[in-house]
Amino acid sequence: MTGSTDTDKPLRLNGGQALIKALEMEGVEVVFGYPGGAILPVYDPILDAGLRHVLVRHEQGAGHMAEGYAHATGKPGVCMVTSGPAATNIVTPLADAMLDSVPMVCITGQVALGSIGTDAFQECDTTGITRSVTKHNFLVTRAEDIPRIIREAFHIATTGRPGPVLVDIPKNIVDANNPDAYFDWEWPEELDLPGYHPNVTPSIESIEAAAELIMAAERPVLYVGGGVLKSRGAQALLELVELTDIPVVTTLMARGAFPDSHELCLGMPGMHGNYTAVTAIQRSDLLIAMGSRFDDRVTGKVGAFAPDAKIVHFDIDPAEHGKVRTPDVSVVGDCRISMELLNEELRTAGLPGSNPDRSAWRQQVSGWQEKYPLTYEQSKDGELLKPQYVIERLRDLSPKDTIVASGVGQHQMFASQYWEFNHPYTWLNSGGLGTMGFSIPAAIGAKAGLPDRTVWAIDGDGCFQMTAQELVTASVEKIPVKIALLNNSYLGMVRQWQSLFYEERLSEVHLGYDVPDYVMWAESMGCVAFRVEDVDEVDEVIAKANAINDRPVVVEFRCHATENVYPMVPAGGSNDDLIVDPSQADLLEADRAADRERAEAIEAGAQA
Amino acid sequence: MNRPGDLAHHTLSVLVENKAGVLARVADLFARRGYNIVSLAVAPTDDQAFSRITIVVDVESAPLEQIVKQLFKLINIVEIQELSAFDAVERELMIATIEASTDTRTQIVELVNIFEGKILAVSPEAITVSLDGAPSKIDDFEALLRDYGIRDLQRTGRIALPKMDRDVPVLRAVSNS
User: Fold this and answer.
1) What pLDDT sits at residue B172?
2) Which of A347, A371, A395 is the last residue of a domain?
3) pLDDT digits 0-9 by tens, A165-189
4) B-chain residues within 8 Å CB-CB of A199?
5) What does the pLDDT read at residue A219?
6) Residue A251 lies in a domain
7) Which of A171, A200, A471, A529 could form an S-S bond across to A519 if both were Cys, CB 3.0 to 4.6 Å?
8) Does A288 lie in the same domain as A154?
9) A207-237 per-position pLDDT tens digit
10) Could you give the C-alpha distances from A43 to A14, A33, A55, A272, A510, in angstroms and in order?
11) A458 and A334 within one domain
């Protein structure tokens, strides 16, 4: 016998088999999903596939798990749900991933092509609904397009500025009983994306111009955002800082991109940033924005933000340049590649030897650090726990490379402030969209991707009640995450705003300590659960929780109900009007009075 | 009322992939970012794989550069050119049905002849005319017809192509090409 062997024969697959094979070709190891009518045909070939499917308890959980997986591993997160309500349930994670530039591919089932537009059972216009919350989306109309579209979806999700991509797949083209759903499998060599060309490598002119401003600056600050992490640029950033000796602030999306333990790390800027980070930006003469986007939670009142600073903006997304603040130098490109080129340019120019003398600036900055550290008052005997204290103990008693996921609210700000982030990709949170309930599913996604790491979710009681059902997923799927539930019985951040800006008229923010019983609830979901009310018990219970590796753990820390997050810039206010912890307020008032006197004296001298 | 010829208006010639839903993506972007569309025309190019959308935008509502950059983030958009009136050949088509009694009909026909328009249909009380040309010419024609009474009027929105043998800034939002 001569001629063709089995391997030459075209592989005949239906759309559902092709979808799973395409996911395997993309190297997908975990899919977070939930089956249902329209996606049913795809769940049959999953039984034979070489990938893990994690069965969630709500589609929103699948989306946030995919995000947590992507944040922690750097690989695209994948989720798969059915049509209609499942698709609408996953809109929130898509919007979350869109605002935080998280690489994610979401596959949704759709009613059969012939039924689209007829208000069929579980039909919704998924591509229409998700158009503004995805980087791109596809409605597949032919089975043979599935391999190419899946490849394009992963390419778009992971390149350029990353983001979520949705692929909507009508039931009939994945249906094993439909002869038209079969085709000869072919993995596309070429992509057909004539309008998609991310700007990866910056122009040499822009790098030279950036280097020139950096070398001339007297009071520079590196304003580092999530783009540094997305581009895997932490090492290049460390080299840049060591070359230039420039202090660094890391935004909420960039915690861990630069080690907090480094003497040049000033911490987080913004609404709840620490005094030094906020004030250094305000007084700087050059702000090097590295993969950051001048978010309103960082800038406060834009007109008063870093008023004396020239701006060098590094970002891969051209639309971020000049969107909020017009840069003096615009470097459009991947942050890691841009920093590598910049470092080379600076070395050629003689750095680190030829740095200008910035000792006055360094002294000023370290003076602020000494005067205005983050601070809180420890609880007195018989009082409930301070959330800051719980986070400090968790930080000190957990492994150094622990991954921390947080929800949204006071606990998120405390976690960002009081955890010491010394490793990239150890901080998962919902920065842009501010999605309550993010932490539990995100932690599960991270742990699914990195099973050897300790993963703590730091959650509030409001957030916990939004997505706690995913702890069932964690138990059943044996994904042993740990949850530190900071229960202060309030929607704490809303209560804080009502206290400060609505004359303490508390409206609809009290949740209550005792209902639900979090320990019973956690145990019923298969978790080990503890309740801590006393400062003396904190360390012991954290140690116990850290020793459990076969089941999820929930520790309910009963926290002080009226603790506020400081420092704080009131919404829309200038960063110059930062409110510090009450214990530092007199000192700051005296400093500000002295500054005013000095300014008046200079003005009087100028007039004379 | 603003007309497409106003200075605050800019014409963008946007080459897009000829795929389902692309026009919706463009329209949706303008809506969600708060940009105003003055007029919009869309049809396939000579290559069936691509369509050209000619959009006249109101730039008072947002800087043109930001509109172009946001548009270019749409995956199906291949190229964007800004066409100023000096660099472009612009055309628009209007059809209108005008009140025309036996007394006024000859006056309207005269106007149509002056503007080199066409008469498409005539009835005892009305006359339907068409005119194509530069948008400002159509503005003038429309203004003159208004006195006779306009029953119905439809303009296509402008379409435009770059004039030949001139450099047109190609706003590809790609700095390194």
Assistant:
1) 58
2) A371
3) 999 999 999 999 999 999 999 999 8
4) 173-176
5) 98
6) yes
7) A529
8) no
9) 999 999 999 999 999 999 999 999 999 999 9
10) 13, 10, 11, 45, 43
11) no
Contacting residues of B for A132, CB less than 8 Å apart:
28, 32
pLDDT band at A604, cuts 50/70/90?
Answer: confident
Q: Are residues A399 and A542 in the same domain?
A: yes
Contact A409, A462 (CB under 8 A): yes
Cβ neighbours for B17, distance < 8 A, ≥ 6 positions apart: A194, A195, B49, B50, B51, B76, B77, B78
Kindly name the residue from A493, A530, A556, A568 that is annotated as catalytic. A493
- pLDDT score for A526: 98
If 0-12 CB within 10 Å is exposed, 13-18 middle and 19+ buried, where does residue A3 land? exposed
Pairing of the two strands B88-99 and B159-162: antiparallel
Instruction: Tell whether A365 and A413 lie within a shared domain.
Output: no
A428 is written with which tokens?
A: 């998962």
User: Catalytic residue at A282?
Assistant: no
- Lowest mean pLDDT: which of A289-298, A490-499, B78-87, B139-148? B78-87
Same-domain pairing of A406 and A324: no
**CATH, residue A239:** 3.40.50.1220
Nearest to A561 by CA among A468, A499, A484: A499
DSSP string, A528-559: EEEEE-SGGGHHHHHHHHHH--SS-EEEEEEB
Give the C-alpha distances (Å, rounded to integers) separating A206 from A197, A328, A455, B66, B158.
19, 10, 40, 20, 37
With an 8 Å Cβ cutoff, is A373 touching chain B?
no
A437 and A549 fall within a common domain: yes
For tokens 């800038």, name the residue: A299
**Domain count for chain A:** 4
Q: Within this chain, do residues A522 and A603 fall inside the same structural domain, yes or no?
A: no
| Residue among A121, A400, A523, A544 flagged as catalytic | A121
**A424 assigned to some structural domain:** yes
Of A128, A319, A322, the CB nearest to B73: A319
Residue A64 is part of a domain; what is its CATH number? 3.40.50.970
Q: How many CB atoms lie within 10 A of CB A68?
A: 32
For the segment A283-335, what is each residue's pLDDT rounded down to a tens digit? 999 999 999 999 999 999 999 999 999 999 999 999 999 999 999 999 999 99
Say if the Cβ atoms of B66 and A319 lie within 8 Å: yes
Q: Select the residue of A139, A195, A319 nearest B78 (Cβ to Cβ).
A: A195
Q: Does A247 touch chain B (CB under 8 A)?
A: no
Domain assignment of residue A452, yes or no: yes
| Secondary element (H or E) of residue A299 | helix A296-299
How far is residue A60's CA from residue A56's CA, in Å, rounded to a whole number? 9
Question: Is the CB of A127 less than 8 angstroms away from the CB of B28?
Answer: no
Provide the chain B residues 115-154 that lie in CB contact (below 8 A) with chain A: none
Can you list the domains of chain B with their CATH numbers?
Answer: 9-88 (3.30.70.260), 90-158 (3.30.70.1150)
Domain range for A587: 578-607
Annotated catalytic residue, options A104, A123, A152, A171: A171
Please confirm, yes or no, whether A294 is among the known catalytic residues.
Answer: no
pLDDT for the residue numbered B59? 78
Q: Is A199 on the interface with B (CB under 8 A)?
A: yes
**CB contact at 8 A, B159 and B122:** no
* A299/B61: higher pLDDT: A299
Question: Would the CB atoms of B66 and A195 count as touching at under 8 Å?
Answer: no
**Do A263 and A302 lie in a common domain?**
yes
pLDDT above 80 (res B5)? no
Q: What is the pLDDT of residue B176?
A: 46
Q: Is the pLDDT of residue B169 over 70?
A: no
Give me chain A's average pLDDT, please.
96
Distance CA A207, CA A233 (A): 16
Does the beta carbon of A131 lie under 8 angstroms from any beta carbon of chain B?
Answer: yes
ipTM: 0.90
Give the chain A residue whose CA is nearest to the CA of B69.
Answer: A319
Which of A132, A152, A156 to mutate: most B Cβ within 10 Å?
A: A132
- Residue A566 covered by a domain: no
